Here is the input.
Amino acid sequence: MIVFAPRENSPGETRAALTPVTVQRLVGIGLEVQVEHGIGQRCNHPDAEYESAGAKVIEDRDAALGRADFVFRVSKPAIGEIPRLKRGAIHASFLDPFNEPEILKAMSDAGVTAVSLEMIPRSTLAQKMDALSSQANIAGYTAVIYAAERLNKILPMMMTPAGTVSPAKFFIIGIGVAGLQAIATAKRLGARVTAFDVRPEALEQAESLGAKALRIDLGGETGGTDQGYARELTPEQLEKQRHEQGRVCIDSDVVITTAKVFGRKSPILVQQDVVEQMKSGSLIIDLAAESGGNVEGTILNEEVVTKGGACIIGLGNFEGRAATHASQVFSANLGNFLEHFWDKEEKAFPIDLEDEILKGCVLSHEGKIVHERFKNH
Ligand code: NAD
Here is the structure.
């Protein structure tokens, strides 16, 4: 079986789907591994490292795509590349399936087994394959480091002969994987951190990291789904949330929003009237920018300075700012996925659609869209 990882299509993508460590692992279980020349250029893995690990470095990307039994990549493929894949091949990457029905249809038409990394269940067994978590964790960290660099203030309290400098105030909205790492990082750097989430258990986790939890009684149903994701709030609940958290935003030096609702556009949680009242020099990092944004006025991949002098940062791919480590864990997730289902005797990757993990993440198989959520999309 041939595993191939091409270079990423998007010019802003710094990560690689396969790193030399994972290559070595896959070669060790008997797979032939090929990577496109330059795949690791932006995450500090030169071609020679891949060769030493046992991979073949390929110049002709199209030919390799047409030969591979298993294609690994970070982001969704360009739609024009899908017909070049071999019928029966498995393609594993983020696919953004709720917003990219054409890609999914093209995968199905091409007879490709499409694995969507976003859809891997949030179960204990699948944790080692959970690329959403491994990447969100790094994004939470890099967002705080970026804020620390951009803020015209220091983060910790300092008592000096020239007077006391008070700690920077961070407000983290959305305490999932990225939010928890943002809290932990900001606390380590000495900031004063407040955090909010609609899931009560997330507030307790924030407190255990030393943050102050903002408690808002939203009434009605909040909490999470069986996968741990937040439920969508009613318009009345959202209004209440925005009102209560507005004053915390206005008092903060840095607001980091990470609030997502799985499979839907992210809710707008910070509106323009609040942004306008934020202090000059304060920053809002909208980590939900790629799924629509949590802040009114966010522009994806741009920084917008408001009339009041606050800056809304809508940059995407924060995890790609630490490309070496983001690639390391991403590639490990994919390696774990392959190895978990690899049949050593048959030297094959059987697709059992009754398996809990595969049922969750295989969207198309043998020329059909097989996932319940996307069959009638
Ligand atoms: P996510 O990226 O979908 O959302 C980020 C956070 O935003 C979540 O905590 C969510 O509750 C919050 N949010 C949504 N709407 C909000 C609103 N209106 N206001 C404030 N916050 C709001 O979440 P995630 O980081 O992918 O994690 C989702 C859940 O999955 C968490 O409970 C996490 O602990 C769990 N998880 C479980 C496993 C596992 O068991 N294998 C692995 C990873 C994550």
